[in-house]
Design a protein that fits this description.
The complex is a heterodimer.
Chain A: H1 6-38, H2 43-70
Helix pairs in contact in A: 1-2
Chain B: E1 17-21, E2 24-27, H1 28-50, H2 58-78, H3 81-104, E3 114-117, E4 120-123, H4 132-163, H5 171-213, H6 217-251, H7 261-266
Antiparallel strand pairs in B: 1-2, 3-4
Helix pairs in contact in B: 1-2, 1-3, 2-3, 3-6, 4-5, 4-6, 5-6
Classes of the chains: A mainly alpha, B mainly alpha.
Chain lengths: 71, 269
């Protein structure tokens, strides 16, 4: 295979790059639901920590988008 | 087959130069950042004038509520009112400034009003946080504050001890210390690149979806627009909270409280 279509590579980048952050956000979400179910009185505290973690995980996908759109 | 993504439509990675102020190039993101800063100063000046014990102005009241909410969050994370009040002005300014600049990238006219500069069409406005120079500047400011207060609060000896803790005859201590120092540099990179990547990537995504959807770009970009609003809120909050937790971690003597460990563990991401 001498020539690879750039659109194919871009599709692979976005497809493979979405797997990790998706798993990460899923893990954060499931832990948040579990934690709120156990002690609902500190829901606000748990949610604010969860948003921080989601922001950290989302940044990975942002890097994928950044590489995708700038090359 | 899919056509090429709209990389030609999106903004170039580096901000474009509008004119030169002596030797200093003046870029479109600088222009919009200054406009944002003036807007914020005016807004908060107005609120400070209108605020009173029994608020009559509804807007001033909502801004006060925002200040109270952020102060509550920071009190929770510092655990000490005096310390929190000392760092509150910088952290709150970072939050509001980043938030305004993230959101202003979604306004109509930003990126789309162009100007011919030396034969090249340059957009007049560009959101401040889609410029890597800007986010690095903010990260340097916040990390400089962290180290300044670390040296001031625990002294130079304590500051060095923060990195090289443990038995000084053991070579492992130096290895760990060097890793810690490398982590400090990595903080700068991650703090700036995260904000830049998320906001710039989001705007590139918007323009790509608009061009993929053709005539229905106005409808296709609407859900992404809501995602962008959420993401810019989260990123502004994250920048503030990470700076706060760095301050907390480096101004305490070794022992870290449990509530910051989650943030500290994720800080290297």
């Amino acid at each position: 295979m001498n020539h690879v279509d750039p659109a194919f590579i871009k599709g692979l980048t976005i497809g493979l790059g979405a797997i990790g952050p998706a798993i990460g956000v899923g893990l954060v979400g499931s832990s948040v639901v579990g934690a709120v179910g156990r002690n609902p009185e500190i829901q606000g505290k748990i949610l604010s920590t969860a948003f921080i973690m989601i922001g950290l995980v989302d940044a990975v996908f942002a890097f994928v988008l950044l590489i995708l759109f700038t090359t | 087959m899919l056509p090429f993504f709209a990389s030609s439509d999106a903004q170039p990675l580096a901000p474009q130069i509008l004119f030169h102020l002596g030797p200093l190039p003046f870029t479109n993101s600088m222009l919009f950042g200054i406009i944002g800063a003036i807007f914020l100063l005016g807004l908060f000046g107005m609120v400070a004038k209108a605020t009173q014990l029994w608020p009559k102005s509804r807007f001033a009241f909502s801004v006060e509520t925002l200040v109270e909410t952020i102060l509550g969050l920071l009190l929770e994370s510092f655990g000490d009112r005096k310390k929190a009040m000392r760092h509150f002005p910088l952290l709150f300014t970072l939050f509001v400034f980043i938030l305004i600049n993230n959101l202003s990238g979604l306004l109509p006219g930003v990126d789309s009003i162009t100007l011919g500069v030396a034969g090249v069409s340059v957009s007049l406005f560009r959101s401040w946080t889609t410029d890597l120079n800007a986010t690095i500047a903010m990260a340097v400011l916040s990390l400089g504050t962290v180290h300044y207060y670390a040296v001031r609060d625990i002294g130079v000896k304590g500051y060095i001890h923060h990195f090289f803790s443990g038995n000084l005859k053991n070579p492992m201590t130096y290895f760990i210390g060097l890793n810690e120092l490398f982590g400090e540099i990595l903080r700068l990179v991650t703090l700036s690149l995260r904000l830049f990547g998320v906001i710039y990537g989001g705007e590139a995504l918007l323009s790509a979806i608009a061009s993929l959807a053709g005539n229905f770009g106005w409808a296709a970009t609407l859900p992404v627009m809501f995602l962008e609003i959420f993401v810019s809120l989260v990123q502004a909050y994250l920048f503030m909270m990470l700076t706060a937790s760095y301050i907390v971690m480096s101004t305490t003597h070794g022992e870290e409280s449990e509530s910051h460990e989650a943030v500290a563990a994720g800080a290297g991401a």
